[in-house]
Specification:
Strand order of the largest sheet: 1-2-3-4
CATH class of the domain at 120-204: Alpha Beta
Number of strands: 8
Shape: extended
Order of helices and strands: HHEEEEHHEEEEHH
Number of helices: 6
CATH architecture of the domain at 120-204: 2-Layer Sandwich
CATH topology of the domain at 120-204: Copper Amine Oxidase, Chain A, domain 1
Radius of gyration: 33 Å
Length: about 300
Amino acid sequence: RVVPAGMEPGQGALAPAGEQQGMMEDGKVHSASGLFAYLEMLEAQAHEAAVKQEEIEQQEEKLAMLKKKVQELRLQRDELRAKVDLQGKGQLGKEGVMSEPAQPSSQAVLEWKIKSVKAMLQIFYLTGISGKLTKRGVCFCISTAYEGTYLDSYYLDLLIKPEVQIYRHSIPVFIPLEQIAKKYLQTDIRRFLSVLSDHLNAYVGRRFQADRLQEQFPEQIEGPLQRNSLCNLLVFKYYVSSKSKTFSLTARLLYGDLCHSLPTEAIVSCTPDAPASLAETAAAHSDLFRRMALHKAFRSFSTAPES
């Protein structure tokens, strides 16, 4: 064979057979490990999609059950109204004189109350509110969640004799429980529980967003996030980059509607020495905070290309 000039025999030629075999085996190992990693990723994605699909199907099933129960209760209501109308007509004598209506016994009234409470418990169970009868009345459990994540549960013990009143509870002191009870408890207990549940779910939703912001973006938040107990006022500073420079923005979020987890007012301001383009960025962030969950809005512009 011909050996290039200046090269000893055996130099610059193919590697020895044993070394070539080792290189091929290394390539196979790397290829197999990459394939396994890809298969694991596909399996994780398939599992996540299956879990989400199962959650959607469960929610649809609960909604269908709730609609069915509502229809049954409406039918019962219509039947009771018809019976009341017939009884009212039967109380008129032949001469058109109204006879004395029969007064229901205390036992009948109590049984009616218990039956009504049981029907109400069945309905609320599908909406995150469950309960059980007690010797004095009924104890409710209000379960809260945000974006499909179950969070805290709160308890409310009510007395129903001689009138409905709150016996004890675990509702946070900053939730306007007394105002809600004064408005709905004696006249519409379903409305009372529904409004109270809205307040609690909105509160845990706001708290959830603030916690996720601090957990997921600690390097972009300047100092501690300031918030009150109700989490309806959040103030924080965060860093943004513009033209290869880093600037600080201050966000002030006010949640005027305590039954919602999105702010009614979002003001983002920048320092006086910031470029004009940063003021446009601050305005865009303000709009984003009003329309999206806080941590999701932050993720959207944190992953955007640098301006």
